[in-house]
Design a protein that fits this description.
single chain, 232 residues, mainly alpha, 88% helix
Length: 232
């Protein structure tokens, strides 16, 4: 029974890594479509997202079957539940990639190439975050997973800088249509910022599998202050 369960856990891990690879491919496709303002490629992102969603539900069914038929011990149950959380975050990351693709038809009408490098840099960082998290999961490497978490702060800083640039550009825009195009670029940046949050969640779950503790990488400093005030 132990050998069978280990085999099933390994299959779950492989399926989850495969889903993560699909999400990474979807994000890369969305970023390329954004850089080239390729509406046809943006449509392909929507199709790729359907495969991500289908994979999520397939893995979820495998997790449910494993729990209901094998009565896993605590450590094994932790691994299965972590997978169930990870695939939800991975599916949402696919949604963020799809969200980037959605803005492209509007941006095509009023392209703003000067802002694209900022989005490309954010895209590179969050792609690396996801890839590192998947490698950490594949090799059961907690230290590698921990490397993902501080990179989210870098993404947040870049988003804040991009937000300020967009606000300045909107203020100087000569037409409502141009303002609308800037807003769509801001939406794309927000999708990337959220993608980074979700990649951090995945890394936290990888740490949880081995330690039993969630490393809160996305804690807002104000939330920490409020928590301590409530404890007094």
């Amino acid at each position: 029974m132990r050998e069978y369960f280990d085999k099933k856990l390994n299959e779950l891990r492989d399926e989850t890594i495969k889903m993560g690879s699909l999400v990474e491919a979807e994000l890369k496709m969305a970023l390329e479509a954004l850089e080239k303002l390729d509406v046809g490629l943006a449509r392909a992102v929507h199709e790729a997202d359907k495969q991500v969603n289908a994979t999520r539900f397939m893995i979820e069914e495998h997790c449910t079957t494993l729990i209901s038929t094998q009565q896993p011990l605590l450590q094994d149950l932790r691994a299965v539940l972590a997978v169930m959380n990870m695939i939800v975050d991975l599916e949402r990351m696919g949604d963020q990639a799809k969200g980037i693709a959605k803005v492209i038809p509007s941006i095509v009408k009023h392209p703003e190439q000067s802002l694209m490098p900022d989005l490309n840099e954010m895209g590179t960082i969050v792609t690396e975050m996801l890839r590192t998290a998947l490698q950490a999961y594949a090799h059961r490497n907690i230290e590698l997973a921990k490397l993902v978490i501080p990179r989210d702060d870098e993404v947040d800083r870049r988003f804040a800088q991009f937000f300020n640039r967009i606000m300045e550009a909107m203020a100087a825009a000569q037409s409502p249509e141009k303002v609308a195009a800037y807003y769509e670029l801001l939406r794309a940046a927000r999708e990337l910022e959220r993608f980074g949050d979700l990649a951090t969640n995945v890394a936290e779950r990888i740490i949880y599998i081995s330690t039993g503790f969630i490393h809160e990488g996305n804690t807002d400093p104000d939330d920490i202050v409020d928590y301590h005030l409530r404890k007094k």
